[in-house]
């Protein structure tokens, strides 16, 4: 029986911008080099939702992948996102990801237009057909941003050998339990990840294999504390504190709150390309102070 390829704490890389709105590749590579030193981090996830891939051009996203691959230098696993609004663009991403030599492909269903299950499955099938080197694929359910992956489609995806992982950024406990049951019975080589920081302990306790998230990129050692010893009291307390932090991050439009916290964690990202309402800017100072207090509290778990 084949073994799992992916397991542990995977950080979704956040994209730094210059004042003129261009991607700051110099800052990015410096941040990647520093993050790669963490023993807790299993890998980097490039062009994920929090990385704002939808606000970048195709060319910028590919350049982002290449820059991170170069800065990483094979120290950590590299998983690149190929999610797009259509099959043709997704297959173009897969071709570029193949040339880069990534360890995996993260692929969510198309966004914006509402699709039927048969159309979502056709999208995946076309992507698999274009994946000539059979780079491992991590399926991705994020119904708040794309078409949801139903249980029927999920079960169909288990039939494809190149599917080696699945990330679920939804909090339906019954769905998560059903997913894990199907994997255990049919494809135990597939790794299962949550995409929600507040769900890491719960999903791990059910048999999950880790997390893909922005907070995992910004503080992998803290997230590993929750994952590594899920039954401990420290793990429980740390998870509760993470939830408090996420609540404060989510006061702001996505991903502005993550940009605020990233600066607190030592990875400034600039202003980005999205206009921020004045009322959110007014709340930022107090919220940043609360986030900093929680961050310092979370770091104390590493001293215990």
Mean pLDDT comes to 96
Q: Could you describe the largest sheet, including whether it forms a barrel?
A: 8 strands, parallel
Residues in helix, %: 40-55%
What is the radius of gyration computed over CA atoms, rounded to a whole number of angstroms? 18 Å
Task: Give the full name of the CATH homologous superfamily.
Answer: Aldolase class I
Which fold name is given in CATH as the topology? TIM Barrel
SSE string, helix = H, strand = E?
Answer: EHEHEHEHEHEHEHEHHHHH
* Class based on secondary structure composition and strand pairing: alpha/beta
Count of individual beta strands: 8
CATH class: Alpha Beta
Helix run count: 12
| CATH architect. name | Alpha-Beta Barrel
Summarize it.
Helix 2 (58-72) runs parallel beside helix 3. The chain has helices spanning 25-35, 58-72, 87-100, 117-130, 151-157, 173-186, 200-205, 214-218, 220-228, 233-249, 256-264, 278-299; strands spanning 8-12, 41-46, 77-81, 104-107, 137-141, 163-168, 191-194, 210-213. It has an 8-stranded parallel sheet.
Question: Which features would summarize this protein structure in a list?
Answer:
12 helices; globular; alpha/beta; TIM Barrel; 8-stranded parallel sheet; 304 residues; single chain; 47% helix
What does this protein look like?
α1 runs parallel beside α2 (58-72) and α4 (117-130) packs parallel to α5 (151-157). Helices cover 47% and strands 13% of the residues. The model has no long low-confidence stretch (mean pLDDT 96). The protein is α/β, with parallel strands linked by helices. The chain has one domain (8-227): TIM Barrel, CATH 3.20.20.70. β6 (163-168), α6 (173-186) and β7 form a beta-alpha-beta unit. An eight-stranded parallel beta sheet has the order 7-6-5-4-3-2-1-8. It has twelve helices and eight strands.
């Amino acid at each position: 029986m084949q073994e799992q390829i992916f397991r542990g704490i995977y950080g979704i890389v956040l994209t730094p911008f210059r004042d003129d709105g261009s991607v700051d590749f110099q800052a990015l590579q410096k941040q990647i080099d520093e993050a790669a030193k963490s023993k807790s981090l299993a890998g980097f996830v490039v062009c994920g939702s929090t990385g704002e891939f939808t606000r970048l051009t195709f060319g910028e996203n590919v350049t982002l992948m290449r820059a991170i691959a170069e800065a990483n230098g094979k120290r950590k696993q590299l998983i690149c996102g190929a999610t797009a609004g259509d099959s043709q663009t997704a297959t173009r991403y897969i071709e570029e990801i193949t040339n880069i030599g990534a360890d995996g492909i993260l692929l969510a269903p198309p966004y914006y237009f509402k699709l039927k299950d048969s159309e979502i499955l056709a999208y995946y099938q076309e992507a698999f057909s274009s994946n000539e080197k059979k780079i491992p694929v991590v399926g991705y359910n994020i119904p708040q941003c794309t078409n949801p992956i139903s249980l029927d489609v999920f079960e169909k995806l288990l039939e494809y050998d190149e599917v080696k992982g699945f990330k679920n950024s939804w909090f339906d406990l019954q769905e998560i339990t059903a997913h894990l049951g199907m994997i255990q019975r049919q494809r135990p080589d597939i790794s299962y990840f949550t995409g929600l920081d507040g769900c890491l302990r719960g999903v791990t306790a059910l048999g999950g294999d880790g997390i893909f998230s922005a907070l995992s990129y910004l503080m992998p050692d803290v997230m590993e504390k929750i994952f590594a010893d899920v039954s401990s009291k420290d793990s429980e307390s740390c998870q509760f504190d993470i939830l408090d932090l996420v609540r404060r991050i989510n006061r702001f439009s996505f991903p502005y709150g993550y940009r605020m916290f990233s600066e607190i964690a030592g990875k400034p990202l600039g202003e980005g390309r999205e206009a921020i309402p004045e009322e959110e800017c007014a709340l930022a100072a107090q919220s940043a102070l609360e986030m900093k207090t929680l961050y310092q509290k979370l770091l104390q778990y590493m001293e215990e």
